[in-house]
Write a structure and sequence with these properties.
Blueprint lengths: L7 E8 L2 H11 L3 E8 L2 E10 L8 E6 L13 E10 L3 H10 L8 E3 L2 E7 L5 E7 L20 E9 L3 H10 L3 E6 L2 E5 L8 E6 L13 E8 L2 H13 L8 E2 L3 E7 L5 E9 L24 H7 L7
Parallel strand pairs: 1-4, 5-8, 9-12, 13-16
Antiparallel strand pairs: 1-13, 2-3, 3-4, 5-9, 6-7, 7-8, 10-11, 11-12, 14-15, 15-16
């Protein structure tokens, strides 16, 4: 099998209140709540996963809702600053009406790289975009209020802001196999031909931008997709070969991962397709039960007593 990065696997961000986060992504945005588990390093904190029906790579956004007392993050250099979702062409006006109904902060539609998009903020200040796409054939998850004509299809791109893009661009092109496909002013668009969707990383170069602060309402890390463990370890060698420190393989229950900081300071993950989100729940029951990593199962009663109840839609 060809050793290839297959675009974005998932994006993980930090939130405050767990119920508010769940309501926004499952109800207002209409994503499927596919997994309710806990942070591997902090079992007193939820780890939420939202995506399409089966949790396909390229649709998965995950959150650590650490509570209302965490400090507010600040967008800046050395971090992922925008998450872009694909939506059907002509759907932005419908989303504007929905955002008005639910008091979501948004900007009027604009255009970049010939694509019409709508910027908005989640309740914690995380910056997202809905980007109109004509030929995204991914099957959307539908809810009672968000139907296929307007529903998100998964990620279109992620934006990373940097003082200098050279080191990050080198990782994307020489390690991950991306190429520069377009430029508008100080925004450089990189894409991979290995997949049709969730294939784009925009690098924005702002030499004097203050360093960002990763906390509430900000992206914790960006994960890139590989097919299996063999290819994962191939990329471990490639990353290490350019002098970057990279973790051993880590079992994240639903995928296997490596982590490293790219030269611009953003935490990158490489994650496998296997074993997937049905490893501990049937497809029709995804997100309904609290699933714990094996090492915390003996503490289930105490963990459940501590966590605020969240009921999937």
């Amino acid at each position: 099998m060809e050793n290839t990065i297959l675009g974005i696997h998932h994006i993980t961000a930090i939130a405050g209140d767990a119920k508010r986060n769940f309501n926004f992504y499952a109800h207002i945005l209409g994503l499927r709540f596919i997994k309710k588990t806990v942070n591997f390093d902090d079992p007193g904190t939820y780890h939420f996963y939202f995506g399409d029906e089966i949790g396909s790579a390229g649709t998965i956004i995950t959150f650590f809702p650490w509570g209302e007392d965490i400090p507010q993050g600040r967008r800046g250099s050395g971090m992922a600053t925008e998450i872009g979702y694909s939506v059907p062409k002509g759907s932005l006006e419908w989303w504007i009406e929905r955002f008005e109904k639910y008091n979501v902060i948004y900007n009027k539609p604009a255009e970049k790289f010939g694509e019409r998009y709508l910027t908005f903020l989640d309740p914690d200040g995380l910056k997202l975009e809905l980007i109109e796409q004509e030929n995204d054939d991914r099957k959307p998850w539908e809810t009672d209020e968000v139907k296929a004509a307007h529903a998100t299809r998964g990620f279109h791109k992620v934006t990373i802001t940097l003082n200098d893009i050279k080191g990050t661009a080198n990782v994307l092109t020489n390690i991950f196999g991306y190429r520069l496909v377009a430029q508008e002013s100080n925004r450089y668009r990189y894409a991979t031909d290995a997949v049709n969707q969730a294939a784009i990383v925009d690098l924005v170069e702002l030499p004097s931008e203050k360093r960002g602060h990763v906390a509430n309402g900000s992206v914790h890390h960006v994960a890139f997709r590989v097919k299996n463990d063999e290819i994962l370890m191939y990329f471990r060698e490639k990353v290490a070969s350019i002098g970057l420190s990279i973790t051993p393989q880590i079992d994240r229950q639903y995928f296997h991962s490596l982590y490293f900081r790219e030269p611009g300071g953003v935490l990158f993950e490489i994650a496998t397709d296997n074993p997937g989100f049905t490893v501990d729940e049937e497809l029709e029951n995804l997100g309904k039960g609290l699933k714990l990593p094996e090492q915390y199962e003996s503490q289930r009663a105490a963990i459940e007593a501590h966590l605020v109840p969240i009921n999937s839609l």
